[in-house]
Every structure is written in structure tokens, then in C-alpha cells.
Amino acid sequence: MKLFGIVFIALGLTACAATGQEARSLFDGESLEGWERKAVHGGRGGLWTVEDGVIVANQEPDHTGGLLGTLESFSDVEVELEFMADDPVDTGLFLRTREDGMGYQVTIDVRSDGYVGSLYAPAEGGFLVQYENWRDHYRPGEWNHLRARIVGQPAHITAWLNGVQTFDYQDSEERYPPEGYIGLQVHGGEGSWGAENRARFRNIRVRPVEAP
After folding, report:
1. Are 116 and 134 in contact (CB under 8 A)?
2. Where does residue 124 rank: exposed (0-12), middle (13-18), buried (19+ CB within 10 A)?
3. pLDDT tens for each residue of 103-143
4. How many degrees, rounded to 5, is the angle at CA 58 between CA 35 and CA 115?
5. Is 142 in contact with 136 (CB distance < 8 Å)?
6. pLDDT of residue 87
7. What is the pTM of this model?
8. DSSP bridge partners of 127
9. Which residues, including other chains, have CB under 8 Å from residue 5's CB and lie 6 or more apart?
């Protein structure tokens, strides 16, 4: 095992020990059990497969997308995953997502004008936080680690990319419900996704946290 993976396992075990809460997997490495395609954001859900223990995401042939969402709803949680995205690919991690596909989005927008590890509010169509220095910590063509925590209402959201904090945002309004599903995105649009490009996810875990 590479040192990179050992470090993240150690950090995860330390966090669980400190809080008394155990992280559990949201992906069994073999199927999409516990998840479902969400026909939101003007699409039919996107194309999702499991290949070699990895969730692989792609646009529909007509360049539409959507979300892959958990069947279970979550409130105060910490989510972590590893992702590998081709360039260009526009995806992200959604938290407290409503049935219409709107929720807090931690961006994984790997494009020349994109952002990774920023916070986006799709219902309002704008960024709440933009992290400008993401390329200093992002590893092109390799597995990257993303961790996000959301607690309270109005929500307090924090995110880390490869162990580096990218934002710490306290919302001033109850923008989304106090709980909702966790989602992974395929963004629609011909320019947002290369024809042969894919987004890949693995080691998706969730841990309940207590709001202060």
C-alpha cells in the first residue's frame, strides 16, 4: 500500500476514535446497491457503472446528466471519498440534497476554468466559496481524497482536498433542508464533459457528527 493511502487511513481512524462515531461505507465495491439515478438538473440521471471496484460516471449520449443519490437521507455528517476525473469533467459531491436535485455542492469541476473543493449552491446558481488554489493540491490523473463535513442549521460546511482545507463556511440562512440524500453528479452540457472522459469514485464513507 502506498504511503498516501496509509496516511488517510490513519487520519480516519484517529477522527473516529476522537468522536466515538464509526465511519461506514456507502459503496460495496461491486454494485450500486443503496444508490439510485436521479433525473434532475434537466437530465435523466447520467450513466453510472461499477468497474473494477470503482463507480464510473459518464454523460448520456445527448450530453445530459443528473445525480447518483443515496436511498438514505443524512443530516449532520462527514463524507469522504476518493475521486479521479479526466479533463474536462464537471462533477461534484452533493450534501443534504432535495428531491429536485438541489443541495450544497462541493465542486469537482476539472476544467481550465473550473474549481475543485469549492462550495456551490445550484438553486441560486452561484458559488458560496471559490477556492482559487486547488491546483496546488490536486493530482491530475491520480486518485484524490475529498472530505466534507456539514452540521447544524443554518449549515456549517467544511471541506478538505488531499488533507488541505479548502473552505470553512457558515451559512446565514436555511438554504436547504436539515437533511437530504448524498449525491454524485454528472453535469450536463457538451462543453462540460469530454466525449471519452469519465469521473471515477471509490472508498465512499460517511460518519455521523454532532452539531456544536
Report:
1. yes
2. exposed
3. 999 999 999 999 999 999 998 879 999 999 999 999 999 99
4. 95
5. no
6. 97
7. 0.90
8. 120
9. none
